[in-house]
Specification:
The protein has one helix at residues 51-63; strands spanning 3-6, 11-14, 21-27, 30-37, 40-48, 68-72, 78-83, 89-92. The chain is mainly beta. The protein has one domain: Phosphorylase Kinase, domain 1, CATH 3.30.200. The relative contact order is 0.26.
Length: 93
Protein backbone atom coordinates (compact mmCIF):
# COMPACT_ATOMS: atom_id res chain seq x y z
CA UNK A 1 0.00 0.00 0.00
CA UNK A 2 1.25 3.45 -0.87
CA UNK A 3 0.13 6.49 1.09
CA UNK A 4 0.70 9.98 -0.22
CA UNK A 5 0.62 12.76 2.35
CA UNK A 6 -0.46 16.30 1.60
CA UNK A 7 -1.61 19.42 3.49
CA UNK A 8 0.84 19.03 6.41
CA UNK A 9 -0.02 15.38 7.08
CA UNK A 10 -3.65 16.22 7.87
CA UNK A 11 -4.68 14.19 4.85
CA UNK A 12 -3.56 11.00 3.15
CA UNK A 13 -4.28 9.58 -0.26
CA UNK A 14 -4.26 5.78 -0.14
CA UNK A 15 -4.19 3.44 -3.12
CA UNK A 16 -6.34 0.94 -1.18
CA UNK A 17 -7.75 0.27 2.27
CA UNK A 18 -6.04 -3.12 2.54
CA UNK A 19 -4.21 -2.17 5.73
CA UNK A 20 -7.17 -0.40 7.34
CA UNK A 21 -9.56 -2.29 9.61
CA UNK A 22 -13.26 -1.91 8.79
CA UNK A 23 -15.55 -1.54 11.79
CA UNK A 24 -19.04 -0.35 12.72
CA UNK A 25 -19.18 2.15 15.56
CA UNK A 26 -21.92 3.77 17.59
CA UNK A 27 -21.57 7.54 17.72
CA UNK A 28 -23.77 10.37 18.85
CA UNK A 29 -25.15 10.24 15.28
CA UNK A 30 -26.01 6.50 15.39
CA UNK A 31 -24.29 3.47 13.81
CA UNK A 32 -21.62 4.40 11.30
CA UNK A 33 -19.26 2.56 8.97
CA UNK A 34 -15.70 3.36 10.02
CA UNK A 35 -12.11 2.33 9.48
CA UNK A 36 -9.10 2.35 11.75
CA UNK A 37 -5.84 3.40 10.11
CA UNK A 38 -2.59 4.15 11.95
CA UNK A 39 -4.47 4.04 15.25
CA UNK A 40 -7.05 6.65 14.29
CA UNK A 41 -10.74 6.15 13.56
CA UNK A 42 -12.26 7.59 10.38
CA UNK A 43 -15.92 7.62 9.35
CA UNK A 44 -17.27 7.36 5.82
CA UNK A 45 -18.00 10.90 4.70
CA UNK A 46 -18.56 11.32 0.96
CA UNK A 47 -17.97 9.69 -2.45
CA UNK A 48 -16.67 11.57 -5.49
CA UNK A 49 -16.42 10.67 -9.16
CA UNK A 50 -12.76 11.59 -9.43
CA UNK A 51 -9.73 12.31 -7.33
CA UNK A 52 -9.56 16.02 -8.14
CA UNK A 53 -13.14 16.51 -6.87
CA UNK A 54 -12.35 14.61 -3.68
CA UNK A 55 -9.24 16.68 -2.98
CA UNK A 56 -10.97 19.97 -3.77
CA UNK A 57 -13.92 19.19 -1.49
CA UNK A 58 -11.62 18.26 1.41
CA UNK A 59 -10.08 21.72 1.63
CA UNK A 60 -12.76 23.03 4.00
CA UNK A 61 -12.32 20.03 6.33
CA UNK A 62 -8.55 20.45 6.24
CA UNK A 63 -8.88 24.16 7.03
CA UNK A 64 -10.82 23.18 10.16
CA UNK A 65 -8.03 20.81 11.20
CA UNK A 66 -9.93 17.61 10.42
CA UNK A 67 -7.76 14.69 9.31
CA UNK A 68 -8.89 13.15 6.03
CA UNK A 69 -8.21 9.92 4.14
CA UNK A 70 -9.04 9.54 0.46
CA UNK A 71 -9.10 6.08 -1.11
CA UNK A 72 -10.59 4.47 -4.21
CA UNK A 73 -13.62 2.26 -3.60
CA UNK A 74 -14.95 -0.83 -5.38
CA UNK A 75 -17.01 1.28 -7.81
CA UNK A 76 -14.08 3.28 -9.27
CA UNK A 77 -14.98 6.34 -7.24
CA UNK A 78 -13.01 8.05 -4.49
CA UNK A 79 -14.30 7.79 -0.94
CA UNK A 80 -13.42 10.42 1.65
CA UNK A 81 -13.06 9.38 5.28
CA UNK A 82 -12.84 11.97 8.07
CA UNK A 83 -11.29 11.50 11.49
CA UNK A 84 -13.61 11.29 14.43
CA UNK A 85 -12.57 12.19 17.98
CA UNK A 86 -12.64 9.26 20.41
CA UNK A 87 -15.08 11.24 22.58
CA UNK A 88 -17.73 10.89 19.84
CA UNK A 89 -17.45 7.09 19.76
CA UNK A 90 -19.87 5.55 22.22
CA UNK A 91 -18.72 1.98 21.52
CA UNK A 92 -17.72 -0.35 18.72
CA UNK A 93 -20.79 -2.18 17.43
Amino acid sequence: MKAVEFQRVKSMLLDSLDQASSIIINTIFGKEKAIVFLGKTFVDHQVYDNLNEAIAECKADLALGVEVLIAPDDTNHFRVWISIPEEMILQSA
